[in-house]
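tool=predict chain=A
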Amino acid sequence: MRLHGGPDRIRFPGRTGLPDRRDVVDVDAKFDHAGMLSGMLPPEAYTPKERGPFVNDQTEDFQTQLQILRDQITKQGVRVLEQATQAVDCYFDHDLDKAREVLQIELVVDEVDVEIEKQCIPVLALGQTNSHSIRSVLTIVKVNNEFERIGDCAVTIAEATLDPQRTTSNLPQTFRVMANSVLGMIRDANRALSKNDPVLARRVLDFDDTVDRFKQEILLDAQQRLADGALAVDGAFRLLAVTKSLERIADHCTNVCEQVIYLETGKIVRHDAEGWTQPQDPNSSEH
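tool=predict ok
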């Protein structure tokens, strides 16, 4: 691992996604992804499309049921953030009790996941034709799945903590930075979803490349420590498994944010952030 400016700062090569193309990270800093990346994108690029006669197109029943779903998905987002935070903490602190709490939270996450999906079906059956209304329900269905997957990744981290073969070893500094960054992505993805904020969602997407850089540095560090005999092979595999789980959480956060952009603009950014598709009007005669 290459250090710059002292033992508490990390340098890594290439573009990092950080503002002003900085390549130095303070390992003790508390990451504020929205603040760090503010000003990088013009807000007008993500102006929500005109929703049309939104209120007139909704029945009172549909609005009520949709709000219930929104409340549930918001609470689920907070739940998986808590679960992931506890998973990271228990891994660093080797706290077995907290690791077991992560597994208990997963039972609730799974139960709510199924309940939300079941409730979405009758809401869609109400037959709304307004495009934003339809996208709202579809977004909840997809985000619900992403949150459940984040919970699965948290369980993987907790299980690594509970592994009786695990031995305490010094973790690379970049690992804590990566973990904090991923937790910040969950937080900001939740905020973007609850506030219907496509600008914040886009900023979370941009930070994903930085998380990938952290992963590369951790891999290089593990390889070097293996070569030096400072890290056991089983410890290296365990570290890489947890790192992979953090990377997957970041990917799920980007998927959530892609859905927020889709909800508010009607544009699909899943495969190419620069090659947006135009929204499809459900009233269109094209099939």
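The chain has one domain: 58-265. Confidence is low (pLDDT under 50) at residues 1-27, 33-57, 275-287.
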